[in-house]
Structure formats: structure tokens, C-alpha cells
TrEMBL record:
This is Gfo/Idh/MocA family oxidoreductase. Belongs to the Gfo/Idh/MocA family. InterPro entries: Gfo/Idh/MocA-like_OxRdtase_N, Gfo/Idh/MocA_oxidoreduct, NAD(P)-bd_dom_sf. Keywords: Oxidoreductase. Transmembrane segments: none annotated. Gene3D superfamilies: Dihydrodipicolinate Reductase, domain 2, NAD(P)-binding Rossmann-like Domain.
Amino acid sequence: MSSLSTTPAPVTSGKKLRAAVIGTGKISEEHLKYLKSDPQVDLIGVCDLSPSLAKYAATRFGAAEAFTDSGVMLRTAKPDVVHVLTPPHTHVGIVTDALSHGAHVVCEKPIAPQRQQFLDLWTMAQAKGLRLVEDHNYRFNEPILAIEKLMNDGKLGAPREVEVRMALQIRGAGRYADTSMPHPSHNLPAGVLHEFISHLCYLALRFIPGDVDRIAAGWSKHGTEPLFKFDDLDALVMAGVVHGRIRFTTHAAPDTFMVTVRGEKGWAETDLFQPYLRVTIPRKGGAQLSPLINHYLNGKMFKRAAVRGFRNKIMQHTPYEGLKTFLGRTYEAFRTGGEPPVTYNDMDRASRLIDALLDEKNRV
């Protein structure tokens, strides 16, 4: 393995980890819920530029103190782990500061807009014996783990096609469409789409073995508003005989986040915004009865998924259900010195793919 491989981290079992959160946006609630629930974590600080938001989050989730200056928090509270949950354009500076103060870092995607910036941060973390982990939370949602198990158990056969498709109507309203206060992510290399393609890339790569050798990326802007660089991506990603498709649009409805994996034997799909797991594989009834059995079992699944979806809506459960699993495994790695669930290779492959999708030579 290269010089950028993971070096062992100090074992911290037997003592509580002191955790701090920087940024109190939407995703912070999910991180804070986990930190409050883990008996081996002390939430020692929440930081946001807004004093009221920092104080509210600290009070609601039982943090020891609220801060408006992350540098002050790092110097005075001395956290063991820092969650960087701010907009992507701030990540490099804040992660650098957290690492320089001796803290492991859990960072929302993307850690950095470009791969070289990620590599620089990784090198710094390794030199200090610290962990740097990017949040690939959707990888740990139950339907994705189930598809991985089907693949690992040989039920789908060798992978041949992977499609990850997201539709989000973010142009008409909301934080990304506000022309009076443009969201800073519009300045990222892919504009606001940069915030979402990390999810698409790491999920696609989870089912694409080997190195990507061909890419054809169609970046488009179909709307007329000047705020958006792009509002559509249709990319073909190939690794040997495995074909992948990465699709993002702001013009289709309803909002969807579909993952489909096809192998030599069968296929499976889910929509992470409306969770279900549809599986079509050879059954014990043989080739003649397998279609009938698959339809019957998938029909039962859709009924259960409809009830579960209604319950989730009432209980306000979000598609972030995999975040708790991700954080649980990550904190276990911090305590034991083991490998985090999102490895250097996972992060580097996703970062390389994003760079390649943006490379002019791969555009069509």
C-alpha cells in the first residue's frame, strides 16, 4: 500500500471521548442525536457563527458549552473528536485547524472540493496519528447493506451494471435557489451539484470493483437562472465489464434517490427516499417459477414498505437512518484503534471519480 495508507491510531478504550460539533445546519441534528445517545461520549461543545443556534443546539442536546469561534473551542475545550458539519467550501480550513489541535475528524462530504486537497489533509492526519473520516452515511442505510449482503452471498452474481439516480427539485425554492443570499456551494467546481455527487459516487463505487477506466460525463444546464452552474448530470462510468451510471437532475419529479445493482444472476434496487428493497433472483422453484415467486415476494415487500413509509412520515424519520450505524462503527474504531468503516481507499476512490467527472477531457 502507498505511503498514504492508514497508520494505527491511539487506543482510547476505557475513557469517554470528548466530542465537539462545528456547524448547526440540518445534518447536525442527526450527529448530535448520536453523540447524546452514546454513553461513552461527552459532548463538550457546539459551535456556530450564530450565537442563538449554537446555544439552542447545546441546550437541546446537552453540550457542555456553546461557542461562536471554532478556534476558541478547539483551544479551550480540547475535544478528542471534531464533527465538521459546515458548508463544503469551509471544510479544508476547519479540518486543518481541528487536526492541528490533535483531534480526530468526522467531516461531511465532500471533505475537500478537489482530490489533492483531500490528500494533503490525509497526509497531515497520518503524520499526527489521527483519523480523518468522510461521512458516507447512505452506504449504511439498511437497503444498501442488504444489497451488499446479496452481492457478497453470491445471490446476484458478479456485478455488471450499477445505477445511482437522484432527482431533487432544488431550483424553484429553498436555500440553493435564494438569489438574494446565494448559497456558497454555488462556487464549488460543480456548483451545488458538488454537494450531492459525493453520495452518488461512493454508492456507485461500492458495487464497482477495480479501477474506473472510462468515463463520459454529460454536464448540462437546462434552466435559465444564472445562479446554477449545472442542474443535470448524466455520466457513464466503466470499470472493465462493469458499467455504472450516475444521474442527477433538478427537473424530474418526485424527489428520488434510487440505487440499482444488476449482476450475472439477478438484480436489486431501492429508493433511499422511500425505502424498499426489490429483489429479482433465481428461486428454489426453478426458472419456470422464479418470476412468479419474485413477484409475490416483492409484492409483500412493497406493502410492508408502504406501511413503514407512512410510519416514518408520521414519526418524522429521515433518510439519514444509516448515519447512526456509520457513527457507531466510527467511534468504535476511535476507541479501539481499528479501521474506520469509511477507509482511505473509499474516500480516495470517490474523490478521484469526482475529479474525473469534472475533467474537461471526460465531458461529452
